[in-house]
Structure formats: C-alpha cells, structure tokens
Amino acid sequence: MAEHPREAKGFEGTLRELANSIGNMTYDKTASFIGELADDITRQADADSARGREKLSSTLYATAEELYQARDRMDKAWKICEPYMNKN
C-alpha cells in the first residue's frame, strides 16, 4: 500500500502557515494553485478508479470538482481586484 506523506515536502511550517502563505498570494496565483491541487486529486482519483476503488475515486472526483469551482471563483476575485493591483 502506498504511503501518503503527513507533511508538505519541502515546507517546514505548519499547515496553517502553508495555507496563509498560499492565501496571501495574488488571487490569480492562488487560483492557479487550487487548480493544480484539483489536477493532482483528479490524478489520484483516476489511479484509484483503475484499481477498482470506486467509492474512493468518486469521492476524490467530487472533491476535485469542488476545487475547480473554487479556482473559478478565485479567478473572478482576481478579475475584480486586478485593475487596482500595483503593477510593480
């Protein structure tokens, strides 16, 4: 059975610090991160589906879909804020 790590590899802080770091990025970058996370969860769902783990894979697919929706909402937030952002 494959082991999933209990911590984010390469990140030394807490999960709260990681969330704050990502949440404090510009909204377009936060949206990109959420999309990448959704893509990875979809990849895991595909692998679990291929192994016949339908209950797990369907739950992961639903999670990924909600993350894609969150990405899209964050993109909308970026479009609202972008005109007011410092261009530096």
How would you portray this structure in words?
- The chain has 88 residues and is mainly alpha-helical.
- The protein has a domain at 24-82.
- Helix content is 69%, strand content 0%.
- It is built from three helices and no strands.
- The chain has helices spanning 15-23, 27-50, 54-81.
- Helix 2 (27-50) packs antiparallel against helix 3.
- The chain starts with 14 loop residues before the first helix and ends in a 7-residue tail after the last helix.
- The mean pLDDT is 94.
**Fraction in beta strands:** under 5%
Mean pLDDT: 94
CA-based shape = flat
Query: Poorly predicted ranges (pLDDT <50, ≥5 residues)?
Result: none
Major sheet attributes? none
Furnish the topology, listing elements before pairings.
Blueprint: H1 15-23, H2 27-50, H3 54-81
Summarize the model shown.
This protein is mainly alpha-helical.
